[in-house]
Fold this sequence. Notes:
- The protein has eleven helices and 17 strands.
- The protein is of the alpha/beta class.
- It folds into two domains: 16-123 and 313-344, ornithine cyclodeaminase, domain 1 (2-Layer Sandwich), CATH 3.30.1780.10; 136-311, 3-Layer(aba) Sandwich (Rossmann fold).
- The strands form three sheets. Strands 9-8-7-10-12-16-14-15 form an eight-stranded parallel β-sheet. A seven-stranded mixed β-sheet has the order 2-3-4-5-6-1-17. Strands 11-13 form a two-stranded parallel sheet.
- Strand 7, helix 4 and strand 8 form a beta-alpha-beta unit.
- The longest helix is centred in the middle third of the chain and has 19 residues, at 122-140.
- The model has no long low-confidence stretch (mean pLDDT 93).
Amino acid sequence: MSAPSTTTAPAPSDLAFIRFVSVENMMKLVHSIGVETMLKDLSRYIEDDFKRWEQFDKTPRVASHSEEGVIELMPTSDGEDYGFKYVNGHPKNMREGLQTVTAFGLLARVDTGYPELLTEMTLLTALRTAATSAMVASHLAPKGATTMAMIGNGAQSEFQAMAMWAVNGVSTLRLYDIDSAATDKAVRNLSSQGFKLVACATPEEAIEGAQIITTCTADKQYATILSDNMVGAGVHINAIGGDCPGKTELHKDILARSDVFVEYPPQTRIEGEIQQMPDDFPVTEMWQVITGTTPGRTNDRQITLFDGVGFAIEDFSALRYVRDQLRDIPYFEKLDIIADPDDPRDLFGMLQRAK
């Protein structure tokens, strides 16, 4: 056996390192930009990508379901960049002191396949989900809407409220959760944000006078958070609770008398509220509204319903936004994650020289 080489391994090139945004650095990034500004920026990035919807690869998320929850991969590409998110949804986790949703994501260059960004996405998913809701509401909610009912006051609720305020000017929140401690938490967190806050004892009380109704619950079951008689003419329903086959929040009669808007029908028909309806139940894709090819809200009595399940393009927009911010804001670490030998044919030699 030959003696170990004394040749020093070449230092990795810049391509060997990608920018990694930890939870700590994501929080620093958000506060350096400002929560309201970031929500407005994300809403704009998402809208811009919806305008070029036809450029993207589109596929329903790859989901692994269990009795306890779901683990999903959400990939897409616009031909220049490729992105994916790993995300789980485990409603039981809250009872064990764990997050219901956790996530991370990656953005890579299509021309080389080299990753360029790896980031936490638990916080970022909450921000992009809220930004998507607010962007959609800017197209579908009644003009001048100032009051939102927030049914489900868990980890998403404050983000939803802040985005609706930042993008659409919602200033009154009527809050309800089956767990009053969750409502108390939301009131406490939002009390300094300039809202008029009304803690409600029932969902019926929460929707009184609300022009926007957001349902955001997580239980993995068929549920009736809103029954048909609770929904009057002219409202916008933002149904964005954790979605999967066998999990709904709205009575199907609400869907039957609403104009329903979705992200990507092949995914929403499996996971969204419309899984209760026939396969040919009519829906409108949001990108068509945003590009002006299909009308959104057309009159004051129309019930608009966003059956939002979350789609990979929204995560791509969020990843693209974070990458762009890191050009000027250095809240990241360099992560040595790509093997980069000086001779691309000599991966083994690189290994040997590292002894």
